[in-house]
Every structure is written in structure tokens, then in C-alpha cells.
């Protein structure tokens, strides 16, 4: 018998659906409510939407309607450029404007909206400040909750089972793998995102940047520094 690509995809989608349902049911808990629509990230096999997206992409590419390289450019744009640049502007504003920083730390959602950013996946924002004594790290232990309006799409590593588990068990080890070595006296705080609350790290402003403009400061702020896996260095390449 001939097995078509469509049959394979149908089988894969059905199998994924069968796995997803019981896992999702058991993943619900009162203290970490994940009653939202990216629950597909909760299992190891690709999620139902991911499989559908992949199937759709395959068909479009096969029919010559889209170019895979062009798709990669679009994803890169949202994942690395547009999204994190919004967050970087928020951080730079906080660095130059103490009153804004205060508003950001007390009501992040409203302060971020002042700069025009908000909406889906960012309705309830909390900003946590790095200091010489405290370093903050953001994770979503159950799936991939992430503040889209300020950071764009979550990177693949943020969604990985390894990052989600190890950020809690061994945050310093995870930070080391990202090249971030923290002195032992610095306290590491790990923030577990939920469907409701999304966290953004306010990194420390690097020394020697007093003469920089707000725009130049924003250019130093990387996506990774706002998730907390990195710090902002004066010579850091942009995200
Ligand atoms: Co989540």
C-alpha cells in the first residue's frame, strides 16, 4: 500500500492529540494556571499546532508558494529584532529616567504601555530589577509563557525541557552555560511565568555608559539580558 505524506501527517497529528490530552489535564494546578492556548508546548512530542504549522509550511514550500529562506527571515525578524527591541527601549528609558523606572517597577504593565507596547501575552507584566546583590532569571517551568509585546517570540532554548527544569534546579549552572558567571555573593532569583504574569528583567546599566544616549543604550540591551540569562556589557553584540 502507498503511504502518502498526508497519511503520515494525519497519523502524527492524531498521535500527538492522544498524548496531549491526558498530559494537559494533569498539568493543571491552582498555583500555576496554564489554562491558555499554547498548552501544546507541555509535551515532548511536537505540539499539535506545531505539527499543523510544519505541515502547512511543507505544502506551501512544495507548491512553490513560499520560500523557506524567506520564512526564516520573517521568524528571525520577530524573534530577534522587532520583539526584543521593544523591551530594550523600555530598559533604556528606565536607565535614563528614574521616575519612569519607579513606575516600571511598581506597575510594569502601565509603564510599558506608556511606550506603546502591550496586548496579548503581556497583559500583566512584572519587571524585576538586577542589582549588584541580586540577579533575576525568568523561566516558564510548565511551557513557554513569555512577554511577547516586549520580547517577541520565545527562543527555542526557552521552550526546551532542559531549560525549564534546570533553571529551577541549577540556575547558576544554566547561567554559566550562557557565559554568565555570577560571584557567589550574588543572590539568584528565579521567576516562574504563568498564563497571567509575565516577567521582564531590568538588567544593570553597564559602567562607562554615562555619555550614551537613550537610543544608544537601547542598542546595548539584548534579549538574553531581559530574560536574565545574560548581563548587559558595554561591548555586547546586539540581540
Ligand atoms: Co507557560
Strand percent estimate: 5-15%
Largest sheet, order of strands side by side? 1-4
Gap between N and C termini: 50 Å
Largest sheet: 2 strands, parallel
Instruction: Report the strand count.
Output: 4
Overall mean confidence score, pLDDT: 81
Characterise the protein shown here.
The chain has 239 residues and is mainly alpha-helical. It has helices at residues 5-27, 48-62, 68-96, 98-106, 108-114, 148-151, 156-159, 161-169, 171-177, 214-220, 223-227; strands at 125-129, 134-139, 187-192, 198-202. The strands form 2 sheets. It has a two-stranded parallel sheet with strand order 1-4. It has a two-stranded parallel sheet with strand order 2-3. It starts with a helix and ends in a 12-residue tail after the last helix. The model is unreliable at 1-33 and 37-41 (pLDDT under 50). It binds cobalt (II) ion (CO). Residues 34, 140, 142-145, 193 line the site of cobalt (II) ion.
Amino acid at each position: 500500500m502507498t503511504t502518502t505524506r498526508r497519511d503520515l501527517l494525519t497519523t502524527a497529528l492524531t498521535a500527538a492529540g492522544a498524548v496531549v490530552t491526558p498530559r494537559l489535564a494533569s498539568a493543571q494546578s491552582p498555583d500555576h494556571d496554564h489554562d491558555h492556548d499554547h498548552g501544546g508546548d507541555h509535551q515532548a512530542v511536537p505540539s499539535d499546532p506545531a505539527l499543523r504549522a510544519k505541515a502547512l509550511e511543507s505544502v506551501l514550500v512544495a507548491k512553490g508558494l513560499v520560500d523557506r529562506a524567506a520564512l526564516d527571515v520573517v521568524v528571525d525578524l520577530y524573534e530577534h529584532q522587532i520583539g526584543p527591541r521593544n523591551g530594550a527601549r523600555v530598559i533604556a528609558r528606565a536607565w535614563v529616567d528614574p521616575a519612569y523606572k519607579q513606575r516600571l517597577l511598581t506597575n510594569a504593565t502601565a509603564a510599558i504601555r506608556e511606550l506603546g507596547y502591550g496586548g496579548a501575552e503581556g497583559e500583566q507584566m512584572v519587571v524585576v530589577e538586577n542589582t549588584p546583590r541580586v540577579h533575576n532569571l525568568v523561566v516558564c517551568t510548565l511551557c513557554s509563557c513569555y512577554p511577547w509585546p516586549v520580547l517577541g517570540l520565545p527562543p527555542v532554548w526557552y521552550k526546551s525541557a532542559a531549560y525549564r527544569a534546570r533553571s529551577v534546579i541549577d540556575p547558576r549552572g544554566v547561567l554559566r552555560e550562557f557565559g554568565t558567571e555570577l560571584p557567589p555573593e550574588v543572590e539568584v532569583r528565579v521567576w516562574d511565568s504563568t498564563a497571567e504574569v509575565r516577567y521582564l528583567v531590568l538588567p544593570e546599566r553597564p559602567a562607562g555608559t554615562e555619555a550614551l544616549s537613550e537610543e544608544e543604550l537601547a542598542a546595548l540591551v539584548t534579549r538574553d539580558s531581559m530574560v536574565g540569562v545574560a548581563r548587559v556589557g558595554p561591548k555586547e553584540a546586539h540581540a
